[in-house]
Amino acid sequence: MNQRPYTVALIVPTGVGASIGGYAGDALPVARAIASCSDRLITHPNVLNGAQLYWFSPNTFYVEGYGLDKFAAKCWGLRPVHQNRVGLILDRAMESELRLRHIQAADASQATLGLNLTDYVMTDAPLEVELRTAASGASWGTIGNPGSLLRAAEKLIRQARADAIAVVARFPDDTDSTTVEDYRHGSGVDPLAGTEAVISHLIVRTFQIPCAHAPALMPLPVDPNVSPRAAAEELGYTFLPCVLVGLSRAPQFVVGRQNSQTQDIWAEQVDALVVPATACGGSALLNFSQSHPQIIAIENNHTQMQVPPEPLGIKAIRVHSYLEALGVLVAHRAGINADALRPSLSSLHYLS
Description:
By secondary structure, this protein is α/β, with parallel strands linked by helices.
């Protein structure tokens, strides 16, 4: 008898300073390892985006954060695709040379990777990105002209028949910031991540199609002490390639079960969920926990949050590292109680 596909969700919240997954695609090795021992891996751009570095795995689903929240809440399903036609939005605030660099990156993705892109559009007004930091240390931000962003997305959807949207917004250059320096040296929070999430959330919420964002920045001065975890962002003029690759195969959202098809994936089909042990308060995790997957909390992936699973009533297996989590996933997929792999095993007790 055939078993259903073993499905794992991997979440590393954006902009919370995660030790693994808080930098430039540094959770990609985790995603690759989990994908190798599961039939389907559902994760999000913060895990998979590595600036000009990326890794395509056919069983990995690239799901924007707001869409992941709606999926976890059982409101939306995920429909696998062979190919998306990706539309590109460029912020009018970008300097002409920086704009050209991003257009060339998009052209290269067509010529070298064979991606299917529409013509690009520019916003009718600068997006006016502003960065903020919460009291917890997490990053967030705002855009001054959200209407301009939505009008550009609507144009791509209606006129260019875009199935997914990539956005490049001009972010403030803050090369002297202590926050930026700490991040480049592997000890701080990504100052851009929270605002990037706001941009993609707005488009996904409004149009229910995949979206991801790449910031436009002037290249930073060379620093010999950049951490390997942040080094992917030092490679060139643009972070766009990983976004285009991810969106090219991102699943489409199914809004409402009345539109469901056989191949669609729903939250109750998720068998296991892997999260940092101190960042368990997000909407997706809280909703996933209602479907009773095996939740695995990673203790050595530290974050700026202090929200463990136990006070929230979430039953989780705590493990020290992602390496240990892989063992739990392999046992779980095989239908083996992980306790049976330990040297001591308790006898059954009488239930009165």
